[in-house]
Design a protein that fits this description.
Jelly Rolls; six-stranded antiparallel sheet; 17% helix; globular
């Protein structure tokens, strides 16, 4: 071995011992973080079969939660758990009479009911009934359990900000039984638009843990058209007008028969088809969807939607995370 080779080997051994690496030899350093711009659709026709199979192979008495995680087939890195961006998504299933024991965690979560009724999510002691199309939020740190008093299985979409907490190192989990449960206000205290109880401390999440679909549908019917031609309403915190939860921003969207213009956003979105059928053009892809299908809209992709008649979608996004980090950018085709 030459003197130069020996010196080079010694230098590299010293770097390794000191846990440093030369940036100029890191091919990924100047290429940016791998970004996934490929959308994916999890079709209900296939998911429903998997749900019924899961009912027979897993007991909540043993596993606590019967959950099927929706995995992105195009992960950004090894161990990537996100369905898209900063959001994980899964289906949770309960049989009649089953209970999912209480726990809490630092991650924020939403529950959007796909099929069934008769269950409740208990959030910090408040009982939140679950029917098709209802949204129930479980803010980070809130105790929550699921109880099914109905007569048929119920299925809902779970979406959480797990990837964000994984990157930040802030993931915390605590099993029940619940303790130190904070006092909550009844939803009726926030029943009148523009009026909130005086003297109640505001928190960075909504005190209304449940948003019934019938209220959302009524609001959509009255909503004006957005710049892209769709009608939208936002699930908000009535105490401050912001998102229902600071890390997961939720919307309902109504698409008319003429479809929407193209838009692009840095935010990542998971969509659930609540009513109707149609298709979405996402970059170079075309995804055709129907009721209860779930699909992703990766940030940075030009997107438009076309429906057969009227269609309504539920959307959970990381928009408010992007906004607060000054990373939110929205483009509209008519601005180009």
């Amino acid at each position: 071995m030459s003197t130069a080779s020996t010196a080079d080997a010694d230098i590299r051994a010293a770097w390794a011992a000191a846990h440093v690496t030369p940036l100029w030899e890191d091919r990924a350093a100047h290429g940016g973080v791998k970004s996934n711009k490929t959308a994916h659709l999890w079709g209900w026709q296939e998911l429903e079969k998997l749900v019924h199979q899961a009912l027979g192979v897993a007991s909540t008495e043993i596993i606590e939660r019967r959950v099927l995680t929706l995995r992105n087939p195009y992960p950004r890195f090894d161990g990537d758990r996100a369905a898209v961006g900063n959001i994980t998504a899964a289906l949770q299933i309960l049989k009649p009479g089953e209970v999912a024991r209480p726990h809490r965690h630092s991650m924020n979560a939403i529950r959007f009911v796909l099929q069934g009724e008769g269950a409740s999510t208990v959030v910090d002691g408040k009982d939140c009934p679950m029917q098709e199309g209802d949204l129930v939020i479980t803010p980070g740190g809130a105790w929550h359990e699921h109880i099914h008093r109905g007569t048929a299985p119920i299925v809902w979409l779970d979406a959480l900000d797990v990837p964000l907490h994984a990157f930040m190192g802030t993931g915390v989990f605590e099993p029940g039984p619940a303790h130190d449960v904070p006092e909550t206000m009844p939803d009726d205290a926030y029943a009148q638009p523009g009026l909130v109880p005086e003297g109640v401390a505001a928190r960075p999440w909504s005190p209304m843990f449940r948003y019934p679909w019938e209220d959302v549908a009524a609001a959509l019917a009255q909503a004006p058209r957005d710049r892209d031609g769709a009608r939208r309403v936002r699930y908000t915190n009535p105490a401050n007008g912001g998102p229902a939860m600071a890390m997961l921003d939720c919307f309902a969207m109504q698409i008319e028969a003429e479809g929407t213009r193209r838009t692009r956003s840095t935010a990542n979105t998971i969509c659930v088809v609540v009513e109707g059928e149609g298709e979405s053009r996402i970059g170079d892809q075309v995804l055709r969807w129907g009721k209860r299908d779930v699909f992703s809209l990766p940030g940075g992709t030009w997107t438009s939607h076309q429906s057969k008649g009227r269609a309504r979608l539920f959307q959970v996004t990381d928009r408010d995370v992007m906004r607060r980090l000054d990373l939110l950018r929205d483009d509209f085709e008519d601005n180009l």
